[in-house]
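Hi everyone,

Forwarding the result from last night's run.
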Amino acid sequence: MIGHRLFIDHGSEVVIGQTSVIGDDVTIYQGASLVGDGSPGRRHAFVGNGTLIGPGAKVIGPVALGAGAKIGAGAVVNHDVEADTTVVGINEE
């Protein structure tokens, strides 16, 4: 499901997996991917309203990106991100 006003800037190589849920007013930059991890059922991310996903970022598996989160360029995210949080690099716990 994709919400209102999704903006894909320079859209080449953007991947949005089949079970992704994207909220309203989300921006996704070139080369970003919302990919599955092989989990049964929902395999892809839930992206909250107003989230920004930077160029080349990879969001892996059924993680939740809270409203207003910012995922930096080239970041790898495989855990939930709280609302209004900025993530850069590799998001490991």
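The mean pLDDT is 94.

Cheers,
N.
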